User: Fold this.
Amino acid sequence: MLKKISALVLVGVTAVALTSCGKGDSGTAAPGGGTTTMGFSQVGAESGWRTANTKSVQDAAKTAGIDLKFSDAQQKQENQIKAIRSYIQQKVDVIAFSPVVESGWDTVLKEAKNANIPVILTDRSVDSADKTLYKTFLGSDFVEEGRKAGKWLTEESKSEAGPVNIVELQGTTGSAPANDRKSGFAEVIGADPKFKIVASQSGDFTRAKGKEVMEAFLKSNPDIDVLYAHNDDMALGAIEAIEGAGKVPGKDIKIISVDAVKDGMQALADGKISYIVECSPLLGPQLMDLAKKVLAKEDVPARVVTEETTFTQEQAKKVLASRQY
Ligand code: GZL
Assistant:
């Protein structure tokens, strides 16, 4: 009898070992043993930047041996909240997400905290006053990105008396990048009264909406000098509208954009966009590294700022072939 029980126990132990190894041989050990599971709620698939960000997160999870549960919220906050609740139900080891908008997260983040599941913010942040609701925020400084755009325009326009009429295509209403890129840009150009933002509206970070809003801008503003677009996708949609109106993008209307995705850099090299402020989507490896540290109860910085640069038309021509996204 004893032999039979010991044989069963051996089979049982082997089975558990195989299961955990089967999920990823080089799997990152979860607190209780086995492979780490991460629940990731992504904003959507609205732009070239988002596609590259999703790929970076998925590839990095694979490399780190982390079992990634991934959901696409189609740019709806309620879908992200549902996904986070489902990850809590599934008892994942760690939750990471890019909040589509800044507000309305405290309740669900408190539920994660009460379930002892650490949360990492990536790409965009939240406006919660309670900083214990997440372990760290990994992403760009969007205010600085807006300042960089404003500084380039100030330098570019220094010999012009003005007025310099600007239209602005904002990102998704209520999102951190839209709020912060707007404020950083306004902070810099606000120093000189010759700069006039004659129209500013959300294009929701998409090409289609960017084109639609730019068409409306062109109809109601006969002499636009500059377009400031919060991302390349909206800038590319706006280029279609500008050309449709018989004007030359990059010449009749200077275009400043943010992201530096391949299609944006191509338009920059072609002279249709005038300047791009980079916003790197390649956050995957840093995210997985932070997750491992959090699960190992190691200290992590409250804020990890992404490194990124800017591109002129000449610089774009030089680097275009080597761009990763
Ligand atoms: C920025 C990111 C923004 C990109 C857009 O970190 O949240 O969302 O600039 C994307 O292209 O849609």
Remarks:
- The domain at 142-279 is CATH 3.40.50.2300 (Rossmann fold).
